[in-house]
Amino acid sequence: MDKAHKILILDDDNDWLTLSREMLAALPSRPEILTANTGKRALSLLESEPVRLLICDLKMPRIDGLQILSIVRRRYPELRTVVLSALEDEEFRSRAYALGVDLFWIKIEMQRNSKLFIECLESLLGRDDEPGFRGIQSKSLMDIIQMECLSRSSTVLRITRGPLVSKLWIQDGELTDAEAEGVRGEAAFRRILSWKSGTFENLPAEPGRERTILKPVNALLLETAQDMDENATPATPEAVEDAAHRKTVWKLSQLTRAGADFVIAIPPEGMGEPEALGTQVVTPLVQWTRHAAAIAYRLGEQLEAGPLLQVSGQNLERQVLVLGLNERLYLVGWPADATGNLLERSRKLVASWDS
Amino acid sequence: MGFLKRFFRGRAGVQQLPTGTVTVDRNGHIVTSTVSSVYPENLLRDISADVLALFREARTAQMPLAEISLQFGSLHITARELRGGAIIFLLPQTALLPTPTPSRP
Asked: Contact A306/B73, CB-based, under 8 Å?
């Protein structure tokens, strides 16, 4: 017989804890429910009990939910986390997701849609960490597209890979349009299929959407698979050089389109050479970036300040951001007058660079 | 006093995050500070030394910076260069505070 999972609910409101305990007792998997009304108590319980899922409030005295989530993400990376808050603010939602929580629910919504909430929790409790697209495990994006087309569906597939978002429009089982990283049509479809992981969701169909893809989906999938194979194993030295040249041109176009001054991609020491576009001063900047990241990670640990989100700097001419993605560090330089959310823009730039 | 603490010592200690402003000279000495005196001074000195090192090495890398910001999940550290020293702003990110908009030079 399977051992029941343990759920820990953290909230400073004791009445809410009682209510939640009663509600979660109705979960089909009959988990054991633990409660804590302070962050300290919750951390003690997490140390002593093998908890599968933490449900955490945000607004609490002394140590708030975001601080607790920062700590548990670092100490217990396998723990599933759900934020259940009365704060109806998108900013808190995005900050919680930036900390890596699995779900964010508003308390009043949870009471209104308790059945859906219970289903979400049940799914989180049962989910194992396997590679692939969340929702349908061990299936590639090609499989998912084929399934939608074979079942003659009409839907919009929204695919997310980190900060990158793309969409595929399927109407009566035919792929009609694709959009990714500022391009549409077949080119966008090929870019989406080059993504190795991510999440997807089905949105309602848009029958009025202009059709940009006329080829049958199977032909497109075959062509894309062949392209990917050829790129992965170029046959001749000329083909290798040509592929590298095309890659550099594509990266430069991404840099220009984003409006950034330069990007330096820095692998871990001893794992290859840094790659720079838009700047000649590479070695000193690589050294500074590595040292800045090392200092920041150490300070974060020392101060128990949660995960490092970004390191940035600026002077009268330039703004720079240090980001980490897939074991590599990136130093992105922007003009001093660049506006908007530079963190998000940098993430998109390096994610498309990396994909 | 303190007898019971020997037996009931908390296993999961949580350190409070620093909040306030610290001014340091070019040698890393703290000149002024509005951070609570309860907060360990050696940690403040570590923050100051790291921030000054980042400014110094940025100059060496031909990229002198006027401001450096380190953003963690629960704490933002913003430092402005002051003639070799720095003024450092320590702002915990709690659910009760809005995220500050990055300042412009």
From this structure: yes
